[in-house]
Specification:
- By secondary structure, the chain is α/β, with parallel strands linked by helices.
- It has four helices and nine strands, in the order βαβαββββαβαββ.
- It has one domain: Rossmann fold.
- About 35% of the residues lie in helices and about 20% in strands.
- The strands form two sheets. The chain has a seven-stranded mixed β-sheet with strand order 5-3-2-1-7-8-9, with helices on both faces. Strands 4-6 form a two-stranded parallel sheet.
- It is globular.
Length: about 150
């Protein structure tokens, strides 16, 4: 088995305790299941407040190489309102508009993990838009609902 390429999308509101527990367990299992000496296990996230930086801290602790894709609203590249404070990234990519940034994360990943604020798909949500794009691109998508239940 080769390297592990995980992408993450999640709510800016932050994960529930159940989501945190489930995602930490999932990341630990994915890392252990694919561990091969001299292979990179990358975790990509959007560097937003809430779930992005929460999951990035977990991934870093587990041993993933953490890659941030910071974003901004498409109409305001200087707006850093939703920028998260995680500073443990191994690589920080150039800033990009939210939608383009989300597509870059998906395109570089083999598996996407989503931690949405809702337990059902909604419109007008960056997390769910990223899930839809991931499915369109035929990626493995693991959704972790607010109650911690996982679905593929």
């Amino acid at each position: 088995m080769g390297s592990m390429q995980i992408g993450f999308t999640g709510t800016h509101r932050g994960m529930t305790d159940s989501q945190k527990t489930a995602i930490k367990s999932l990341l630990t299992k994915l890392y252990a299941a694919s561990y091969v000496i001299d292979r990179e296990h990358n975790f990509r996230h959007g560097q937003c407040v809430g779930a992005d930086v929460q999951s990035a801290a977990m991934a870093k602790e587990i041993g993933f190489r953490v890659i941030a894709f910071p974003g901004y609203p498409p109409d305001n590249p200087t707006n850093m309102t939703n920028r998260g404070g995680f500073d443990g990234n191994d690589v920080v990519m150039p800033d990009g508009a939210f939608l383009e940034r989300d597509h870059l994360i998906v395109d570089a990943s083999t598996t996407m993990i989503a931690a949405p604020a809702q337990d059902h798909e909604v419109l007008r949500s960056g997390t769910w838009a990223t899930v839809r794009y991931s499915r369109k691109m035929k990626k493995i998508v693991i959704i972790v609902a607010p109650n911690g239940e996982m679905s593929v």
